[in-house]
Amino acid sequence: MRERVGEDFVVGLRISLDEHDPTGLDEAIARRACVRLAEGALVDYLSVTTGTSSGRRGSGHIAPEMSFANAYTAPLSQSLKELVDVPVIVAGRINQPQEAERVLELGQADACVMTRALICDPLLAQKAAAGKEEEIRACIACNQACIGHFHQGFAISCIQHPETGRELTYATRVAALAPRRVLVVGGDRAG
Q1: Cα atoms in the 13 Å half-sphere on the side-chain side of 66
Q2: 19 neighbors 51 (Cβ within 8 angstroms)
Q3: Per-residue pLDDT tens digits for 24-34
Q4: Global pTM?
Q5: How many CA atoms lie within 13 A of 119 on its CB side?
């Protein structure tokens, strides 16, 4: 990844430290490559992920579903952070600002990536900054409307925030002029 910042370029490397695939890149080789790139001042930051799209076993780690522990990749980024002098960023099932803060406090990374969390609640950062964490819609890592829709060729959305991807269609919601009491009975599609 190469980003232009002012007149300079910032060079980062997104690396899967553990592809979770026996035919994939060996973790020790990936780690050594990161160290050499950092030592040679060839990268300004490293972004740690896991998994690979080259096989079924590793692909589940690209967008880990709800059975994976939150921030499960943070120990990998911490082990790399101890070896390099460039910022280390981590991605992998970090879906709440409190989790990201904990990763940072523990020194496991210098920054956290929260892609699906922001699909679920595009205002997550503003709500967290305003101290309104209880209003944040939490990504549950079901992968239904984000990853599932993407793989089916549909626009991404989120079961927790169905307006995502349809902001122009649904625009800003306004309160009803005459509020009513409503009772929802049942579950599944009926509810």
Answers
A1: 7
A2: yes
A3: 888 899 999 99
A4: 0.80
A5: 23
CA 3 to chain centre: 20
pLDDT single digits (tens) 92-149 = 999 999 999 999 999 999 999 999 999 999 999 999 999 999 999 999 999 999 988 8
Amino acid found at 143: N
Instruction: Report the distance separating Cα 78 and Cα 103, nearest Å.
Output: 9
Tokens coding 166: 């349809």
Separation of alpha carbons 123 and 117, rounded Å: 10
Q: Which residues of 25-61 are buried (b: 16+ CB within 10 A; e: fewer)?
A: bebeebbeebeebbeeeebbbbbbbbbbeeeeebebb
CA 100, distance to chain mean position in Å, is 10
- What type of residue is 46? L
Distance CA 57, CA 146 (A): 20
Report the distance separating Cα 20 and Cα 56, nearest Å: 10
Read off the tokens for 25: 């890149």
Provide the CA 116 distance to its chain's centre, in angstroms.
Answer: 5
